[in-house]
Task: structure prediction
Amino acid sequence: MPVLLSKARERDARVRGLRRFSIVRVRRDENGATAIEFALLAIPFFLLIFAIIETCIAFAAEQTLNFAVDKIGRELRTGQITFNTGDSTDITEEQFKLRLCNEVSIMFTCGPDTDSRLFFDLQSYNDFASIPTNVPLSGGTLDTSSFDFDPGGPSTINVLRAYYAWKVTADLFRPYIANVRISGSSEENHYLIVATTAYRNEAYPTTGGS
Result:
């Protein structure tokens, strides 16, 4: 009888040992599955985070350009910036672009010594109804052929438009938000940021010119 009890206990011990080994192995298998699941979820998760960050930066860039256009538009409207009037406030097209670049330099690469992706169009119109509202595109390329620097004088109606070709870093999202090419550039499509302000100049005094 004692021999039978001893064998039964030995058998129970082996069974418990096998169960314990099986439980440990299952736990190890679960840990491996968790790692695989995390790896599968991490890729789209980090892509989403990166897309959110890039979208936020692009939104901040849009606000920066809008603020700069509004500020310079006020200076044009009040006669703090003039063109061909014979006053000390007159500036050239190159000086105007540099002034615009300085306003957006915190977010944009822009300047006389860089390959700028910043474009502007400043023209006067007979009335507000004559102002075009469409973005000048030709076959998916920004058409700058009609862009001009011709601000009007006192009491004239003017429109300042600024365009910036924002480079999209995430290749995964470029086909969905980057839809404009820059003429003469070999780079991929860009996301076009546009800022516009329309205004009537104040009747500020001038000393000469037109």
